[in-house]
# Entry
Amino acid sequence: KDIILGPTSPLYPDNTLTIDSEEGQVSIESINNTPDSAFNGKNIGVSSIGSMFDQRFGGQRNSIYSQLLPETYNVDPGTNAFADSCILYVKLSELYGPWTLPQDFYVYEVSEEILSTESYSTSSSLATSPTPIGQALQYTPNLTDSFLIDGAYKQGFLRIDLNPSFGDNFVANMGTDAFAGTSNFWNFFKGLYILTDSTAPYSDGLAVVDLLNSSSQMTLYYSNDDTTGLSLDFSFDGGGLNTRLNRYVNVASGSDVEIALNGNNSSDSILYLAPYSTAQSIISIQGLDTLSDLIINKAEIEFNQVEQDAQDALDYGPPENLFLYFTKDS
# Structure
């Protein structure tokens, strides 16, 4: 029999479904629960930045740490070289949420070594410089805006000018051992941290970013006594050597899911399923051993999505995938 979970199911009046047979009893219940641990945050396929609050799911602040590597080592900057500018370009592939409010984005220099062998989670944090090295204030993303990157206009990028002193330091070290190889460079420059203002009120949108896009990069523009308009690119991918870390800060306070989580693990008819969620949903099936002598042709669970208004459906859309994981009794 198809099992329909949700508040409209006539088989689910007390949030627990019980099926009796001659062999025994099978009971099914669903629970919203606090996740046991944070998710893997290292080098995952999709990253996002921004902040938002949703009445159903709570508050969310997403940020990114990442190493970078220069496209070329042992660069001679020339005589009396100086930085013209240093600009960070981050490809935005998708927007999540209504984005009716601008957000302030900041860039900090990471001061703690990022280790490729470390098992970072989405709750991990790294030490950074005390003040930002760049910022984009009151920024509202536009996926059709274009910037000149590597000689071509490209759409959908967050562009942040980094402080002149940061660029000057890079130019001053270009002809030294700092640019002699990967390990030397990581000792000199450990990485960047991109985030929104953690002290500001929540906004209403996240930006999905593609750090592995070939044009997601930091570009140092510089000149010397003989030549103007020189540049050196720094890649987020680094030929697969760089480590990237997603950090998610989830807060359930003041939301519908907070009420569900405070239910002392009692059964729930509404499950809160969302990316970056403050809750995990558990479907408990007890008594399956009573059916051990039967042949089950098909077992299926159907989820009915709680109705959204038209604007919510436009801003968020249905989930592309739902993943079920088997857990043991422990």
